[in-house]
């Protein structure tokens, strides 16, 4: 309706209760106001971010003719599937970290593309049925070659988006919630390189790209995740005390941890110029889009390297170059196995890896079972 506006009632005083309201400019009256979720934070920017999302949601409802108040005239046109998904994603955004939001965004994009392809785009969101959702997800799985695990993961994202739509009364109930998940094929995890392949890979990287060899060595010897390595600053390296500090915002479990530096990584780091504490330990000299020589990056530099850049390099050097089909990340697993073989206890390895539970480390170090079986075979039981 032309005479309706959505406004935000806010204040710099965090004791003041914020709300978003629909205002009738003709009668100069508030016809509906909502404060849900706006006053849970004492941070001004967080409140304003939540208020802006709520404002956009209400504006979309008004534009689509959804009834906000019994006194409003209800139109026959309501929100269609793709618009509703965009709304749900926008509402969900405030609850997600940047990486997680990217996953949700991809799932919604895949879903919307399939909705258009299957000619469901004119369906009103409140008329959407389980059949439509299953058809869309099956179509995506077929086109993208999803495994059962990938299908279920993305279905989880979509289910969460639909929960937002129920919360904002665009649907009566979540039609995705009871859809049966796909069967997941269990795998043995990462395929580990043999010791012979390991030596071949190390020699090849050392001779082909020494800086990348250092990156790979940090992962294998110290058990630091590739993404964490790429976010390390020179100031995080303490050569004197032989430790690396993983900052809380960079670690997987959002907590600080310190990793001991073993040889030969210690010798490698001693040769590097760590004088600029704000440089990335494994970085690049220029922003993306600029050309530079191979020996100028994967070493101390002012700009960070993307995770997928490291993955592409591994494919170029090892999978395509040597024909050895193992992933770079598998050397974190192999490092755990080799540390166990060398006599390091599981608890210490778990601390180094930053795992909250030793059971997680056991998944990495499959050599633990061979040790246990060997010990179990020594047990003598009385004959009966």
TrEMBL record:
- The domain of life is Bacteria
InterPro entries attached here? DNA_brk_join_enz (IPR011010), Integrase-like_cat_sf (IPR013762), Integrase_catalytic (IPR002104), Integrase_recombinase_N (IPR010998), Tyrosine_recombinase_XerCD (IPR050090)
KW Plastid (keyword) present: no
- One annotated GO biological process: DNA integration
Keyword Kinase among UniProt keywords: no
Kindly list the GO molecular function terms attached to this UniProt entry. DNA binding
Question: Mind telling me which SUPFAM superfamilies this protein's record contains?
Answer: DNA breaking-rejoining enzymes
- Keywords, sorted A to Z: DNA recombination, DNA-binding
Q: Where is the Tyr recombinase domain?
A: 187-378
Q: Which residues form the signal peptide?
A: none
**Family per record:** Belongs to the 'phage' integrase family.
> What name does the UniProt record give this protein?
Site-specific recombinase XerD
Q: Which species expresses this protein natively?
A: Chryseobacterium aquifrigidense
